[in-house]
Amino acid sequence: MPSASEPTTAPTAATAPAVTLARRPVGRIVPAVAVLVLAAAVLSFPSLAPNPYILSAGVVVLNYAVLSTSWNFVGGFTGYISLGHGALAGLGAYGTALLVTRAGLPSFVALAVAALLVAALAVPIGFAALRVRGASFVIVSIALVLILLLVFQSWASLTGGSRGLVVPRPFPGLLRPEHHRVFYFLFAGLLGLALLAWWLIDRSRFGLGLKAIREDEDKAEALGTPTFAYKLVVFVVSAGFTALAGGLYALWFGDLDPVFQFSILTGSYMVLMALLGGVRHLFGPVVGALVVGFALEYFKVEFGNTPLHLVATGLLLALVVLFMPDGVLPAIGGLLNRLSRPTQSSIREVTAAQLRDERAAASAAEGTRDRGDAAAATAGGRPQSTRERA
Amino acid sequence: MPSGALLFQSVILGLLLGGLYALLAAGLTLYFGIMRVVMIAHSAFLILAAYLAWWSHSRLGVDPLLSMVVTVPLFFGCGVLLQRLLLARLRPVTLTMMSVLLTFAIAVVIEGLLGYVFTGTQRRIQLGYGSASFGLFGARIAVVKLIAFGLAAVALAALYLLMKKTTFGWALRATIQHRDAARLVGIETDRVAGYGFGIGLATAAVGGTALALDTTIYPSLHWHWIGPLMAIIVVGGLGSVPGAAMAAMVLGLMQSLLQIPLGTTWAQTIFYLALFATLAFRPQGFFGGRLAQRF
Amino acid sequence: MTTRFRRMQWMTALGATMTLALAACSGDGGGSNTADDPIVIGISLPLTGDFSEPGKGVQRGYEAWAKITNDKGGLLGRKVELKILDDQSNADRVVADYEQLIGSDQVDLVVGPFSTRLVVPAARVAEEYGMLFVEPAGAAKEVFEQGFKNLFYAAPAVANDHYNHLADYLLALPPDQRPKTAAYAAMDDPFAQGTAYGLKEKLAAGGIRTVVDEVYPPNTTDFGSIAAKIAASRADLVVGGSQYQDGVNLIVALQQLQYQPKLAAFSTAPTNPEFAAAIGNKTEGILAPTGYTQKAPYPSNKEFVEKYTAQFGTPPEEDEANAYTTGQVVAAAVTAVGCAEQGACQQKLVDWVRSNTVETVVGPLSWDATGKPKGAHMIQQWVGGEIQIVLPADAKEADLIYPKPAW
């Protein structure tokens, strides 16, 4: 029985040979330019937004992006799918709010302290959840949301319960449009920080070990990777960023209610966004957040006052899981490769052996393990992986 | 402080509730045993069955119990199709995680469709004997609750006999224990897995009908059920049907008794506390469950 | 591998830029105010999700108000147009909706959503954009403790005052007849809890002992254990801080246990037209507070009941009436001040509402500085298979029956 703890596999073999054929004159300049363009686009958005509503929608999408990027520390690196990250965001939100209202801390000090507290709390949670693999982990993550909902509802003397909790504004003098603008930049900064952290881990030995867990946890362990410690550390990092996003949201939004803070749907949106964009890509969750943010808005407009928006969201998730488990980015990449194949074929024909490989790999679902970067870690030595790295 | 009468009444209510939990958890355990799938949509199908029972009673005037004549075979078919057409398509290496998301998506779709067809209004079957009850050593037992418990008990017993006494049950148990070995001895594991899924979903049809007899239903109610059920199957030991049934009875009883000192909301946390305790101290579950260690 | 990855990043960046640019261009200005334009009133309502049932009632109330107003020529000679968005019973959405209505759609006026949980976040948006915010559903006292200056609740009384007449009645009974013990069960919801706890405070102060005090989450469906606790306490009086279905469930569970209190009072549920059938017609003697009755003698109410029934086929309930009342308050302000648009006009409207009394379908309404209405609710009781007003004495249609007959 193969390891059941792997959320996605890399692009199927059908696309792999084509990739090696792709031109690579772009060098190192393109990613740098891309990041600059992206940053410029994000930062210029507030001055382009025609009214405060569009600006506030931008804040919401950025919040989604931070959340799904934070989720992707666990989901993308280790392959453990957590449906309970909504609970961590809720804890960050309530932690920040309570530290401001009860302990009288300044807003942003409270935010930092709350994120550290949630990260600390993530240690025992992760300890219980990560000892078990696959199914039990998912169950624990869902249970986390449900139990925190019960606790925050019942413990009304501390949390306000169903009456809600009002978070004082960090900048009381600001008009609402200015408030949105300030928080837009704060969220953008947090997103940059999260992306930077993800990128750094992705390039480190630590990241390599995590990806080895994703590919085959038993093998990684046998090769000497301290799997449990690695998983725990990345879970704590993920929890910290999620809590920061939740806390910042609390400072922006101002009203907390347990029902909305501890909702399984929040966690599932994070998964949907990351999965849709592609969990193996730095910008995958960001793309997913954009798509899902617009999709949710579109569904709402399209289906008006019927709950069909739920159906549409569910179908979107099912389609991604069934047909695009690697996300939109690899799917588009594959499509572009296929479109550019005619020009390539004039340079080099695909050999019969390659075709056979492709077909075999495409038809047999089993065995299409990733042979991407993690192949180095697990030293799988499969023919395809050597070819792709070549 | 609680009187003996109240304690006794709570024990009875707890056992009646535990019976329903046991039946529903049995279905969830079955899926996990067969395919290592955590079927989030189980409770959504439960609510769907409850709605069909309510609908057949209020629109067609049929006794809700009779709706099972349709819903049980229908759900069986749905289960087979669900397994063969959707879950079997997922890559085996990522099956456990992806099946969670897929069944989650199914649950959301069902919730949305229920809301679309029946609106978000809370519904309750209005039976002539809805508030009837009889006395038992000073406690009162509501007739509808006893019928619901009876349904659950009969369905569980039938499931037990099916698993232990029939050839199909033998094949199903073999598939659960070791799929590759089962295939080697000539069992068509794919077909057996499909039928096993059908049976699991059929328990949701029975459970939904039982549920509809005495409680309110509304489209998002399934979230309220899936948490306790998942906790039960972990506490009972993932993959063990008798374990799940035992855990369901124990936890149902504890929930009912804890309501006396703690109130409704805090009492619900017992499921999750039991879940965390199980994973921290005995990940294989308290009532058997050989599979849990590996998954 | 690396090449493809780089290209991904590049495409991502490009895609994100384009989407952002599109988003930035898509917002339209709108909102000019010539005399022929309709007055657009923005509303966000829970049309799907947990609050959808009352949400739709509120929607019907608003629609009835718009139709009746337009049939009479509109406001300030301009037609009234409702722009209703669905907030999916979700606080994030309700805020986004009002942001959109005020910021992007440039509506002239906004009125409130349904449910206390959604009113507070929504009111904050309206407050910060300086909009008048009359609302039909934020009855819990917490709403008025937020320091809102533009908020007004368009109903006779806040939740905690719903049972005032009943409390006065019970405490005025001779000591030997007065109930000695009371059991309370309330949904964990600011409105429902407010009604039960308002009564509890007054009765406890008057010496009626609390023997059971239960709070249950809104998603509770099995009331067996709560009912068992109440039945075991043998309280003389049972009070349910309920919405609709939980009230029904609790009553049925109490009946299953054959508990017979001397008095049973439940909020909201007993006034529902389906209530009697839902509990098997064992309704005799059950009490409920109400802020609205179709039989109320106020002139605008006759018109409302008549035209509403013609439009929708059934007479209006409390949710519909509260929405209609909201419309009436806004209309009175707009007519008196003579303007309806964003900007300075809004503050004039706020000032007018604060210092005036408005004649509505629930009677004359006026507000204190926090936007709290200064009235009380009537008490109804099921008498002879029909729900009738029993308190206060000057409005009663039947005498209060105490102790109530067995159910």
Write structural notes for this entry.
The complex is a heterotrimer of chains A (390), B (295) and C (407). Chain A contains 20 helices and two strands. The relative contact order of chain A is 0.17. Chain A is globular, with a radius of gyration of 22 Å. Chain A has 390 residues and is mainly α. The longest helix of chain A has 28 residues, at 176-203. Chain B has one domain. Chain B has a two-stranded antiparallel ribbon with strand order 1-2. The radius of gyration of chain B is 19 Å and the shape is globular. The relative contact order of chain B is 0.20. In chain C, 60% of the residues are buried. Chain C has two domains: 39-157 and 296-365, Rossmann fold, CATH 3.40.50.2300; 161-290 and 378-395, Rossmann fold. With 407 residues, chain C is an alpha/beta fold. In chain C, α2 crosses α11, α7 crosses α8 (245-256) and α11 (318-337) crosses α12 (344-354). Chain C is elongated. The chains are: A mainly alpha (390), B mainly alpha (295), C alpha/beta (407). At the A-B interface, α5, α6, α13 and α15 of A face α4, α9 and α11 of B. Chain B: Keywords: Amino-acid transport, Cell membrane, Membrane, Transmembrane, Transmembrane helix, Transport.
